[in-house]
Design a protein that fits this description.
Layout (H helix, E strand, L loop, with lengths): L26 H28 L9 H13 L2 H13 L6 H11 L9 H15 L3 H25 L1 H4 L1 H6 L4 H4 L1 H12 L1 H16 L12 H28 L10 H17 L9 H11 L6 H46 L1
Length: about 350
């Protein structure tokens, strides 16, 4: 049975459930899943086509091997988030299988293309409930906390790399570049000093975000636990920045200067966090691209068609990376269930 979270961090041990038996989903759920997929493809495709035409991206020669590397990197960049979510579930006495957790996480990304972004949490909650026996409210609550923590880590690095993202403006203001390096030290100190307040805000926001799907019990993470969580999720942002650097290389001829990693990190964090804040924009469509174009314009080393191409490819790589992850783990989970059936039958016969 489902219990309530009985202390600030963990759930009652009575909430531990055995994995639910595999069953066919109702027709309406299957129609919803595929209908959502078609809607996602339509809006993403229309948005990318408009950017392609307006930014003259069709004039750029793309080296697709680097795009393929970026897709692989982007798929891998969600591994820290999966580990973090599974850890949060364990705190609530819901130790879900890693493969099912990964499947739920990757598949849930399709829900962010619905305005409001709560659908991503609902999809993850449904999969964890049906496949791992995790109570819906705990699955949604922990998924919401992971999403907020992921964006909090991104916001921290977006602030750290803000001078890179607004370099032209700082140069116009004649701010000495030596002062740019003082900024990260000030922001890091501010985070450590304000960590108890940040922790309370995170706990509140995660429950508020999850309540858009279902009623949830309180979940509180301590300051040191949050700091470790932010450190783990920061790894994801660094991998995403390397993926953007790979896209930078893909649109440039070999003789052009190598990508600037700091600019890629600024673009990854500022654009994604900015798109997340704009709730009415599904998956940040529009605001994210606008911010990414602005950040990549700062170094004055890329042409406008190159910047437009990187931005378009970033959206495509983002979608394909999530689709690849969802496809891989859906197949792996299905194969795992299929291979377990004979073993279960033999055990029952014995």
């Amino acid at each position: 049975m489902e219990g309530s979270v009985s202390d600030p961090v963990t759930a009652s041990s009575t909430e531990t459930l055995a994995p639910a038996p595999h069953k066919h989903k109702p027709l309406w759920q299957q129609l919803l899943k595929w209908g959502l997929f078609v809607v996602v493809l339509f809006f993403v495709g229309r948005h990318l086509l408009k950017m392609w035409q307006d930014g003259q991206a069709h004039t750029i020669s793309v080296r697709w091997e680097f795009v393929g590397a970026a897709i692989l990197l982007f798929t891998m960049s969600w591994i820290p988030s999966i580990i973090a979510w599974r850890w949060l579930l364990t705190l609530c006495h819901q130790p879900a299988p890693l493969l099912i957790t990964a499947k739920a996480h990757y598949t849930g990304h399709f829900g962010k293309y619905v305005p409001g972004k709560a659908m991503a949490l609902a999809i993850r909650g449904w999969i964890m409930r049906d496949s791992a026996g995790v109570p819906m409210r705990l699955g949604v609550l922990t998924a919401g906390y992971e999403a907020i923590a992921f964006m909090a880590a991104g916001a921290f690095w977006a602030v750290i790399f803000l001078p890179v993202g607004m370099g032209q403006l700082l140069r116009e203001w004649k701010v000495p570049e030596g002062w740019w390096w003082v900024w990260p030290l000030v922001m890091t100190t501010l985070l450590l000093v304000s960590l108890p307040v940040v922790t309370r805000v995170m706990n509140h926001l995660s429950r508020k975000m999850a309540s858009a799907v279902t009623e949830t019990p309180p979940l509180s993470i301590g300051s040191l636990q949050l700091l470790g969580l932010l450190g783990l999720l920061s790894v994801a942002w660094f991998i995403k920045s390397i993926a953007l650097a790979s896209l930078w290389v893909s649109v440039c001829p070999p003789e052009q200067s190598p990508p600037q990693w700091a600019t890629c990190m600024a673009a990854a964090t500022i654009a994604n966090v900015g798109g997340f804040i704009v709730l009415f924009a599904p998956a940040g469509l529009g605001p994210r691209e606008l911010l990414m174009v602005e950040v990549f314009s700062q170094p004055n080393v890329l042409t406008q068609p190159q910047i437009a191409t990187i931005t378009i490819l970033a959206r495509m790589v983002s979608f394909l990376g999530e689709a690849v992850g969802a496809g891989i783990f859906t197949i792996v989970v299905r194969l795992s269930l299929t291979s377990r059936k004979p073993a279960i039958a033999r055990t029952t016969a014995d």
